[in-house]
Amino acid sequence: MPGWPPLRWTTGTALVLACSLSTAVLPAAAQAAPAAPPDPACKATTGAYQWQLEKKLKLPEDGRMSSDDCVALKKLQTRLKITPVNGAADIKTYRLLLIDEVKKNPNANKRCPAPNYRLTCIDLSRQILWVQKGKKVMFSPIPIRTGRKGLETRTGWQRIYRKNRTFFSTIYDGAPMPYSQFFNGGQALHGTYHDLFSSGSGGCINMYLKDAERLYKYLKVGARLYIFGRKPTRAVQTSEAHDDQLIAEAFGAQGIPEAGPPGR
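User: That's the sequence. What structure does it adopt?
Assistant: Structure tokens below.
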């Protein structure tokens, strides 16, 4: 304006102008985008592991499925390559998340020995298997299913003494045991075509077919195993329950039947 001194640019002037601009009304295109609408494809209802997954994903912990919960769970299932991607707060999603959390250091509790040769560690408490050499993980943790009550998987030091790519049980009605690696009597590491997250085996260590094939190719006759822990028979229902218990004890949870042909 007439009579006003010329504007001299200083650091302070620039700061004032910047602060002024920050309070101005921005064009519609520059304003923050509105929140995304709820995903109409999320139809999941409250699941058995709702509260635990809400806590893990830092969602509001109310134990009830919401649209936000469902969207977050679908993203998690996509990241972990869990199928189906349905947003369900189920045992499969929870267990695979816990395994993902420990994949870099499954032996943090040092319950499995760490010799300078490859050792397959089978943790019955957490229902996971991995291979390590010293402190280095050579075969990342995978989910397993071990013997149910009365037909427990035998613990301690074991050694693979026989391998059969295609095998059928001679005890349990010819049940298929693909990629079998026997370590103690009729007990073996092998793949299963059945649900890995319910009930239990007849003593064998079951795993996904793809994992059983990879492990079959990785281990040789004479490979050492160390089986430890104890598979509980009842799910912990308290909020103080430890992940190690929850990951295993769902096999004995209410509503999960001891169903299916035995010995798998």
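The longest helix spans residues 11-23.
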